[in-house]
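TICKET: design request
STATUS: open
ATTACHED STRUCTURE:
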């Protein structure tokens, strides 16, 4: 029997009959995830990523990160000297922008920068943007990142919150990416935070959460 991957509560099914996809929405924290048996292969996932044009040549992408830094990181910048961008992608724009602000930054990406540079280290800041929607076992990764966060350090995640209405979720453009398999609500992030020893500092818009290690 399926249960929520975040809080282990009961779930109900959401079925996309056209694409034969089944999701589960938690009745308690609202977390939504794709049935594990329907998750695409890493080969297909990598091909999907290769279609993205996420470098400095994409001004919209750069502007998104500049805004992200201003709103979610600059308020805490005086306490941040080192950072890890987890899931940096093929064009590590955020890495460069953080470096330009004097933050010593390292990157990790499963496909594009697979060396686990974070091993044996900890950071004042860990960013993970447009990553958590791709994770089959997000609680495991969240715990890993917290292990590499300095005391009082910050973790900032970017991932879009799903619509509360079932049909709106099934019609939602963000869900149509076949590599998007996990969808968090603010409440589900609060549950995760309590589980791994961080606090939610703030939630911005419908897609950014700032955590601080206790």
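STATUS: resolved
RESOLUTION: sequence designed for all positions
ATTACHED SEQUENCE:
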């Amino acid at each position: 029997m399926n249960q929520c991957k975040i809080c282990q509560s009961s779930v109900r099914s959401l079925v996309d009959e056209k694409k034969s996809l089944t999701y589960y929405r938690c009745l308690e924290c609202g977390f939504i995830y794709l049935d594990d048996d329907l998750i695409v292969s890493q080969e297909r996932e990598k091909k999907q990523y290769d279609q993205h044009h996420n470098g400095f040549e994409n001004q919209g992408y750069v502007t998104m990160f500049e805004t992200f830094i201003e709103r979610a990181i600059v308020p805490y910048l005086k306490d941040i000297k080192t950072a890890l961008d987890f899931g940096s992608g093929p064009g590590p724009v955020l890495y460069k922008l953080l470096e330009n602000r004097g933050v010593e930054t390292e990157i990790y990406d499963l496909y594009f920068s697979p060396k686990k540079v974070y091993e044996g280290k900890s950071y004042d800041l860990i960013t993970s943007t447009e990553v958590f929607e791709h994770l089959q076992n997000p609680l495991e990764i969240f715990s890993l990142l917290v292990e590499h966060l300095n005391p009082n350090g910050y973790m900032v995640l970017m991932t879009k919150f799903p619509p509360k209405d079932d049909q709106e979720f099934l019609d939602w453009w963000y869900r149509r990416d076949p590599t998007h398999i996990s969808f968090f609500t603010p409440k589900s992030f609060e549950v995760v935070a309590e589980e791994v020893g961080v606090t939610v500092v703030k939630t911005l818009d419908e897609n950014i959460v700032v955590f601080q290690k206790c």
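CLOSING REMARK: Strands lie at 11-16, 21-26, 32-34, 82-86, 104-108, 123-129, 149-158, 182-183, 198-204, 208-213. The mean pLDDT is 95.
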